[in-house]
Every structure is written in C-alpha cells, then in structure tokens.
C-alpha cells in the first residue's frame, strides 16, 4: 500500500468515525435510535469502494475480460448505495430532535461520506477501464454507469429494493423496473430522479477525474 492510498483510507476512516460520533451524540441527547439505520447505510456505501479497491490491486483479474466484467457487474449493483445516502435527507421532515441544527448537519455528513466513497470508487474503476482499454471507452462506460446508478437510487428510495434482491427476487424486480419506466403514474418521477442523479454524478465524476492523477493508457 503506497502512501497516497494509505492517506485516502485514513481520510475515509476519519470521516466515518466523525459521522458515527455525531450519531452517538444525537442518541445521547435525545435518547432515540431513530437514525440508527444510517450506520447500515454507510456500511453499504462502503462496499463498492472496497470492491473497486480490491479489484485495482488484483493484477491478474484486470487482465481477464470476463471475470473483470463480472466483478464490475457486482460493483455496479452496490454502487447506488453510496450516493443513496443523499436521499436520507428526506428524513428531516420526521425529525423531533431537541437540537434542530444537529440532524441536518449529521445527515449531511453521512451523505457527504457516501458521495465521496462513490466518487472515489468510480475513479478507481475509471483507472481500471482506462488501463484495460482506453480513456474514451472508460468514460463511455462511466457515463452509462451514472444513469444506471440514478435508476438504482430510485428503486432503493421509492420502490424499497435492496441490491441483493436482484438474486432473491429477480423476476419481481424486473417487473417493477419495467413498470417504473412504462407506467405513466411513475414515469415522470423515475426519469426525474434517474436523470437528476445521473447528471449530478457525472459532473462530480468529471470534477474528480480532472483533479486526481490518471495514468495514460497505451491507446487514446
């Protein structure tokens, strides 16, 4: 592990511990475990980063196209869990905290962590794809990815699907996906959330890609 990677892990650990400290402070002040689900959501947000980090260190796997795409498919399945934390801000309407400043600050901190984890993970995958093919193909794949991620956020927040339910209830999930897109009752909300999060993540990804170092691919 090089020094830059170690610093990233330190930064993420510090951010995660800060979020948990805020949550514990709220529990102490209010005596309520209402926001306890944020710890689980933060754990789920960490999974795509752990997958992409492990993949970036596995040289032989990056050279094998089918296994690489299989792992990236699993990564994509869990990726929406990272920016999904932004939608937890919706819970502010149910907040009854005696410290009105604490809840929005805490929810923002968790959302920030999820967003950073997702963007760092996307950048890692971008580097992997650039090394495997080239920057043009990598960006095209990531462009599609952000909108699939936006659709995944919609399914998680409004249809209450979890990532692993693709394996436990694939037929019902597929029907729900088709209904969300084809049914006029849900279509506007589905497209609105998918496109909004998709373009938002794409802009943030381009920002990160311009500030973080990228190895030049052999083909451009």
From TrEMBL:
Q: Specify the domain of life of the species encoding this protein.
A: Bacteria
Is ATP-binding there in the keyword field?
A: no
Q: Which InterPro entries match?
A: DUF1361
Secretion signal: which residues?
none
Give TM regions: 12-29, 35-55, 67-86, 106-129, 141-158, 191-212
Which keywords has UniProt assigned to this entry? Membrane, Transmembrane, Transmembrane helix
Is Transmembrane one of the keywords?
Answer: yes
Q: Which Pfam family, an example, fits this chain?
A: DUF1361
What name appears for this protein in its UniProt entry?
Answer: DUF1361 domain-containing protein
């Amino acid at each position: 592990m090089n020094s830059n990677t170690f610093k990233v892990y330190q930064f993420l650990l510090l951010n995660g511990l800060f979020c948990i400290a805020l949550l514990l402070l709220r529990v102490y002040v209010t005596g309520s475990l209402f926001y306890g689900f944020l710890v689980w959501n933060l754990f789920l947000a960490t999974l795509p980063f752990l997958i992409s980090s492990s993949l970036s260190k596995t040289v032989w796997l990056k050279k094998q196209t089918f296994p690489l795409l299989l792992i990236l498919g699993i990564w994509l399945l869990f990726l929406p869990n990272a920016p999904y934390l932004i939608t937890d801000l919706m819970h502010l309407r149910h907040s009854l905290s005696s410290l009105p400043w604490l809840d929005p600050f805490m929810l923002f901190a968790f959302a920030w962590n999820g967003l950073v984890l997702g963007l760092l993970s996307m950048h890692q995958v971008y580097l992997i794809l650039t090394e495997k093919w080239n920057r043009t193909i990598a960006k095209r794949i990531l462009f599609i990815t952000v909108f699939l991620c936006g659709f995944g956020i919609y399914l998680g927040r409004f249809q209450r699907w979890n990532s692993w339910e693709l394996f436990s209830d694939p037929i019902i999930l597929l029907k729900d996906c088709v209904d969300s897109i084809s049914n006029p009752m849900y279509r506007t909300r589905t497209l609105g959330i998918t496109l909004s999060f998709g373009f938002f993540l794409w802009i943030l990804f381009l920002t990160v890609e311009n500030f973080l170092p990228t190895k030049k691919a052999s083909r451009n």
